[in-house]
Every structure is written in structure tokens, then in C-alpha cells.
């Protein structure tokens, strides 16, 4: 049984902790929050035996093996860093940090101290996403020519909300656009060049459009937005067909393989819980095996995605404190 501690008590921490109960070898034994009453309430709701009003105190708990970091983006680095220094394995919410430099520091620290570290890009572990990767590798749609993905949801403008606050790592790209970018990287790798277009409000990207270019004319067309409701869909186009993920491609329950002259090939998944249990099971597996990274979301992949995000943000004119 792998013992977990959860840092933060917000919405994402709530749903991920709920899904941890679906993994037999994962046992959440502690939670921390800046507010002790909030930590206590969260602990009672999830049946967690220990709670702390300061995450440093939780990191000193010798019973904890893995720390799940669910804080806002801007504090991912410092919390993950302190957890690694305390010898705790780390699952850190995406994006792992707000800058490439900080991501590199975390990876270096994990390798130096031989401690597991993984970015919580849960999409990579969804069974249908794994099936798509296998189909593409087997040539089910021929050679990939392009990838299209978007993630946009209207967020009322509020300068005090983290989404609109540069100090909190706000903007559409880090919060939502990381999904399309990671999806494209998963299938095409790191691009040769990046072109961007976007709208800045309060110093953060309210919307962003990215064109990632690869060799032989292959490209990825990606977008994110806080200004409009997007389909949140993805399409992988190949020389012999295409794969369509109609909605919520980041946690798909269905997709279709479409080939000219043939009936669509449907793939479906009956999702139990919210879908986070697959990445939790992966962390448990790797930590129990004494490994420091996952082959499905390795350190180098996290850094490659951060390089793309870093360059795109720079071209959009976004600069975080």
C-alpha cells in the first residue's frame, strides 16, 4: 500500500482524491491546506486520518511516501521542490511549473535524489488515449499529416481570480492550452517552429492560437481560450483516414476511426469515477518499483511541452512575475 499526502483542498484536489479511492494500492493518509479548518473539513469528507494547516508539517510526516501537489500553478515549483527535498515522490498538477527553467530544476532535483516525479497529465493514461497511440503506431490512419485540438471555456473577467492574475500563472494557455499542446507532442513530438496569435488582457493570454510546424509539412493547429465556449475536440488526420475525438478529448469516453469508403470504427469507454485513477495507478506502480519517472509521461516529455509553452507565451507577450 502506497501512502499519499495531498497538498491543497480545492476542486481539483477534491475530485482526484475521490478517484484515489478507486486504486486499491493507494491510501491517502494526510492532507494540508493554508487553512487548518479547510484541511480538517477535507479530511473528514474523504476519510483521511491526518490533516495539517501547513504543508511543511505534512512533509515531515514519515508515513507519507507520495505527495500530490494540487496548488495553483504559481506555487507548483516551490511545493514540489520541498517535497522532493523531503524524499517524497511527487505527482504535480499540470503545468508542472510556470516556466521551463523551474521545470528543469525539478527534474534535476528528482534525478539527483533518485525520487519519483511526474506531471499529472492524466490524459496520457486514459485507456482510449493509449488505444489511439497504439492505432497510430500501427498505421491505422496511415502517416499523420496534422493534429487539431482546442480547449476553450468562457471565464468572466475578474482581475482577482487566478485565471486572470499573472502572479498566479493565469491565462488560457497554461490552464487549458496545455492539453492540446501535450496531445500534439504525444503524437508528433517537439515541433521545429512555433507561430502564435492571441489576445492579452491584464497581462495574461485570454486566448491563444498555436501553429506547430514539423518536418515534411506536418503541422498541429491548437487553440485555447477564456473568452468563448469551444468544442474541446481533437482530430488526428492521416494519409489513409482520421481519428475524431468529438468532445472532452482530454478525458475521452469515445472516439471514431474514419476511413474513406468504410463504416466508422467506434471505440468507447465506460468511465468509472472522474478518470484520474489511471494516473494514480501508474504512480503507485512506478513508486513501488523504485523508478523515478513514468515511460508514458517521462521527464523529457514534460520538459519538451514546457519548452513549447515557454516559447508560445514569450511570443504572445506574456511574462510572469
From TrEMBL:
This protein's UniProt keywords: Oxidoreductase
**In this protein, which residues make up the domain named GFO/IDH/MocA-like oxidoreductase?**
130-244
Pfam families named in the record: GFO_IDH_MocA, GFO_IDH_MocA_C3
Q: In this protein, which residues make up the domain named Gfo/Idh/MocA-like oxidoreductase N-terminal?
A: 3-119
SUPFAM superfamilies documented for this protein: Glyceraldehyde-3-phosphate dehydrogenase-like, C-terminal domain, NAD(P)-binding Rossmann-fold domains
Family from the record: Belongs to the Gfo/Idh/MocA family.
Report the protein name in the record: Gfo/Idh/MocA family oxidoreductase
Q: Which organism is it from?
A: Kibdelosporangium philippinense
Specify the taxonomic lineage: Bacteria, Bacillati, Actinomycetota, Actinomycetes, Pseudonocardiales
Amino acid at each position: 500500500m502506497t501512502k499519499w499526502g495531498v497538498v491543497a483542498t480545492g476542486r481539483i484536489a477534491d475530485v482526484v482524491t475521490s478517484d484515489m479511492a478507486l486504486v486499491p494500492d493507494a491510501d491517502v493518509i494526510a492532507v494540508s491546506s493554508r487553512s487548518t479548518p479547510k484541511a480538517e473539513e477535507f479530511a473528514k469528507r474523504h476519510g483521511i486520518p491526518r490533516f495539517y494547516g501547513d504543508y511543511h508539517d505534512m512533509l515531515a510526516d514519515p508515513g507519507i511516501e507520495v505527495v500530490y501537489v494540487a496548488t495553483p500553478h504559481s506555487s507548483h515549483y516551490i511545493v514540489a521542490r520541498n517535497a522532493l527535498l523531503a524524499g517524497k515522490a511527487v505527482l504535480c498538477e499540470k503545468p508542472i511549473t510556470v516556466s521551463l527553467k523551474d521545470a528543469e530544476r525539478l527534474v534535476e532535483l528528482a534525478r539527483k535524489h533518485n525520487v519519483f516525479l511526474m506531471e499529472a497529465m492524466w490524459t496520457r493514461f486514459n485507456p482510449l488515449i493509449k488505444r489511439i497511440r497504439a492505432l497510430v503506431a500501427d498505421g491505422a490512419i496511415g502517416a499523420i499529416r496534422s493534429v487539431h485540438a482546442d480547449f476553450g471555456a468562457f471565464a468572466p473577467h475578474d482581475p482577482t481570480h487566478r485565471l486572470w492574475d499573472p502572479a498566479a500563472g493565469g491565462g488560457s494557455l497554461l490552464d487549458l492550452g496545455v492539453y492540446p499542446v501535450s496531445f500534439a507532442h504525444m503524437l508528433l513530438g517537439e515541433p521545429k517552429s512555433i507561430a502564435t496569435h492571441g489576445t492579452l488582457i491584464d497581462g495574461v493570454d485570454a486566448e491563444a492560437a498555436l501553429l506547430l510546424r514539423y518536418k515534411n509539412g506536418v503541422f498541429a493547429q491548437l487553440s485555447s481560450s477564456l473568452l468563448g465556449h469551444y468544442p474541446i475536440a481533437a482530430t488526428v488526420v492521416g494519409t489513409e483516414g482520421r481519428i475524431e475525438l468529438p468532445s472532452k478529448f482530454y478525458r475521452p469516453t469515445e472516439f471514431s476511426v474514419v476511413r474513406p469508403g468504410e463504416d466508422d470504427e467506434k471505440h468507447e469507454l465506460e468511465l468509472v469515477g472522474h478518470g484520474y485513477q489511471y494516473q494514480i495507478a501508474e504512480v503507485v506502480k512506478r513508486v513501488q518499483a523504485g523508478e523515478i519517472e513514468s515511460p508514458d509521461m517521462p521527464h523529457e516529455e514534460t520538459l519538451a511541452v514546457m519548452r513549447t509553452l515557454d516559447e508560445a507565451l514569450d511570443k504572445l507577450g506574456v511574462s510572469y512575475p
